[in-house]
Amino acid sequence: MNITEFAAYAGVSKAAVSRYFNGGYLSEEKRARIAAAVEATGYHPSLQAQMLRTRRTRQVLVILPKLSSESCARMVEGISDVLDQNGYQLLLVNTANDSSREVAALNLLQQNTVDGVILIATIFTPEHRTVLASLRLPVIILGQEYPGFCSVSHDDRGAAHAATAHMLSKGRTAPGFLGVTMLDKAAGLDRRRGFEDALREAGVPLRPGRTSIAAFNMESGYEQASTLLEREPSLDCLFCATDSIAIGALQYCRSHGIRVPEDLMITAVGDSEAGRVAYVPITSVQLHYRTAGQLAAEMLLEHLADPHTKPENRVLDYVLRPRASTGDASPEEDIWAE
Amino acid sequence: MNITEFAAYAGVSKAAVSRYFNGGYLSEEKRARIAAAVEATGYHPSLQAQMLRTRRTRQVLVILPKLSSESCARMVEGISDVLDQNGYQLLLVNTANDSSREVAALNLLQQNTVDGVILIATIFTPEHRTVLASLRLPVIILGQEYPGFCSVSHDDRGAAHAATAHMLSKGRTAPGFLGVTMLDKAAGLDRRRGFEDALREAGVPLRPGRTSIAAFNMESGYEQASTLLEREPSLDCLFCATDSIAIGALQYCRSHGIRVPEDLMITAVGDSEAGRVAYVPITSVQLHYRTAGQLAAEMLLEHLADPHTKPENRVLDYVLRPRASTGDASPEEDIWAE
DNA sequence: CTAGAAAGTGAAATCGTTCTCTCTTTTTAA
DNA sequence: TTAAAAAGAGAGAACGATTTCACTTTCTAG
What we know:
2 copies of one chain form a homodimer. Helix content of chain A is 45%, strand content 17%. Chain A is of the alpha/beta class.
């Protein structure tokens, strides 16, 4: 049933029906007649026709590098919460950490099928900048600051600082660093800086050779821990850019008789479930992923309502969660017991 | 730029342009002219107009109960792979384990904005059946069999059987069961049956009081393990319906001095990353989540191509992964070392 | 009491396609 | 050579809404 048929059924004009659904001058009498007819027929306007006519789809595109990672999943949950509540639909593109697929997804946008975009950030290439700049849609970058665009990010530098400082405050003096590529501003560069901040603050020199770069998974954490610890056996504490990497490193320690925290303290950023239940529960910095997602979605909706809102960067805080990997609890301690 | 303008620019009729993009009789000369004009202008047909006119949106809705769970995330990744490759877009609705939101999402479909649905299954209520039956769209149920509908599911019964039998084959005689609600056919009912199958096969009676029901998370696993093991201290092995629950149970053992596997063997279904790196790596049954997602998407595309395809249920197999929680490896053993 | 503003109304244009229908031209088969 | 089939082309009617515009009626203020 279309609007013409429905209007005839209800005994009003098409315009009246449209006003009923979209607001506008409409007498009480007609409003009641239409309401009754809706009740009787179950009529509702066609979304496709509305999209064509109004040029708004009420759909938001979310581009993300990986779904099966706790942090991304939680951010998407946050986004989904807010979009749902506001009657927007969530279109998902998983780029599988493939930068070209990311750009391809952005290019798809020039066929304007969505009202806005939330881009969960990883590595930005010059191509990204080109295509992002050419976009006429509101874009929110989630997970790192990006000049000229709205963004919601975490205080990665502060988080890394807190985690590292926590170990140094316990008297450790030979810190190692297991990071990710510096091309990733948030998890790579900022966390590295935070690590260095803590060292500088404590007057501990950063020796070359005491850092290594891993990929975003446990296996890589294991391998890089192996490389690093064989090269630098004197390390007494290790900061890892992500929980996954820390778990890999922990696994290496376990299988090579390195005691955590006695021989080596370990900290990380992310506070994942896996880190909490690991062999030695890992001291980690909790970031508010879900909140970040919600905030990004809210920001986007704001921009949709008023396109002239200025670019703004919201930075979320963090919470250090001390656990057994820094000697703040015994590994056997109840995690969930009250 | 719309088709009329573009057709004028290229010096052909609107119909010719449409045929260029959709196939149909078209002379080589016009084809070349249009191709050149596309190159020059970057024109492409409006998706919204196509949706309205053809009544096909090339969008697929995926309804799932939870994003931040490894299994769901992997299934969605599989779905995303296939849809992407075939030019379909993925619309995501996260129902947050709320049955009414699930039904609401399905009802949204009667506003027909998508071509098909993949429903990641949990608990099916009579309402589900009503609304599913009233749907005129192809629907694939992912994660459990559901009579009358296409589905892709795992051999949950076989998986639970394998996990349980593995413990019994090692001489254990007092098995306990930590499951989830039977309203969930796959993770609840089928895994329970598999557990019972193994007991029957081994001639081990199932004592009442040796089973308990948990929610889908670690905390609940911890609590239910506590209840169960305090009531039945003589248990010597424990089957858990999910890895999360098993991790919770393991945590309980750890904090209460119960040695795994010596005092209590533990197995589960799911083979999550967290289970592999737990305090005692958990023997678990691997299910092919990603493949399941891919298969579901392929099935849906088939139905989209030919709506008369018959309902079919594909059941995927499983792989038992023996680990330290059943004494098949030492906890210190390298997981990733070659 | 009246002018002007506000509220209420419906016809018709518009959004950007696809696709049927009619017609012409070319190819094929007998 | 010719009839039938196939290929190619374009006009114009949908698809199902929103929104402008011109108009009428009802308030409100002075």
